[in-house]
């Protein structure tokens, strides 16, 4: 009687990271292991996914059986900042954003626009005339938070899809001021929301 003997195939994955500073993905895998992907990291960019072609137009999303070696390409996106109002928000050496408009009936707006899914997190506070000189936090023009007066830092995070924007707007009324007459944004971080998991298996022979 003959007994069949089987061995697991091993396939190799080549990652073209396009400048990643960190890539912790396995370079090979067997049937029993499967292929599990994690996001790469590139300073100053948000990860937009693993792709199967160099132009990054075909996303990798495979849950079947792999029968050959793979080459995967990292796609990156950057977010843009618009800070060109008459009163630009200032940035301190430790990264704190501060509104700069102190004139009556003025506003100062800082907007982040993204091209891939992200989470933006930050702390915010105001030192202003309560009920009159206000900080508005807006997503795509719709107000999420309004605050004024003397406040302590409050943590907040919001998910943005590709094409979304988040704005910080400090707006003053027609008279009076109080405190430092400004709004603060601290510990602003932008984190990718792209999920690149895979349940792919190598073939077994």
Q: Please state roughly what percent of the residues sit in beta strands, choosing from under 5%, 5-15%, 15-25%, 25-35%, 35-45% or over 45%.
A: 35-45%
Structural class based on helices, strands and sheet pairing = mainly beta
Largest sheet: 5 strands, antiparallel
| Quantity of strands, as a count | 16
Query: Which stretches of 5+ consecutive residues score pLDDT under 50?
Result: none
Mean pLDDT level: 88
How are helices and strands ordered from N to C? EEEEEEEEEEEEEEEE
How many helices does DSSP assign? 0
Strand order of the largest sheet: 6-9-14-11-12
Calculate Rg over CA atoms: 24 Å
Identify the overall geometry.
elongated
Account of the protein in words:
The protein has 205 residues and is mostly beta strands. It is 0% helix and 44% strand. The protein contains no helices and 16 strands. It has strands spanning 10-16, 28-30, 46-51, 65-66, 70-77, 80-82, 90-91, 97-98, 107-113, 118-127, 134-139, 142-148, 154-160, 165-171, 182-192, 201-202. The strands form four sheets. Strands 6-9-14-11-12 form a five-stranded antiparallel beta sheet, with no helix packed on it. The chain has a five-stranded antiparallel beta sheet with strand order 7-8-15-10-13, with no helix packed on it. A four-stranded mixed beta sheet has the order 2-1-5-3, with no helix packed on it. Strand 7 and strand 8 (97-98) form a beta hairpin. The chain is elongated. The chain starts with 9 loop residues before the first strand and ends with a strand.
């Amino acid at each position: 009687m003959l007994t069949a003997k089987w061995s697991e195939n091993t396939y190799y994955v080549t990652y073209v990271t396009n400048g990643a500073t960190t890539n912790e993905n396995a370079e090979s895998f067997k049937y029993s292991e499967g292929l599990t992907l994690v996001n790469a990291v590139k300073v100053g960019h948000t990860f937009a996914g693993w792709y199967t072609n160099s132009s990054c137009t075909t996303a990798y999303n495979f849950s079947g059986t792999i029968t050959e070696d793979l080459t995967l390409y990292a796609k990156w996106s950057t977010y843009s900042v618009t800070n060109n109002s008459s009163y630009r928000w200032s940035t301190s050496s430790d990264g704190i954003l501060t509104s700069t408009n102190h004139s009556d009936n003025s506003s100062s707006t800082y907007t982040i626009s993204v091209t891939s899914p992200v989470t933006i997190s930050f702390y915010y506070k105001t030192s202003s005339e309560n009920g009159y000189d206000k900080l508005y936090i807006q997503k795509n023009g719709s107000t999420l938070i309004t605050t004024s007066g003397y406040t302590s830092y409050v943590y907040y995070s919001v998910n943005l899809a590709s094409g979304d924007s988040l704005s910080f707007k400090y707006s003053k009324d027609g008279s009076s001021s109080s405190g430092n007459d400004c709004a603060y944004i601290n510990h602003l971080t932008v984190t990718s929301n792209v999920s690149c998991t895979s349940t792919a298996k190598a073939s077994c022979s």
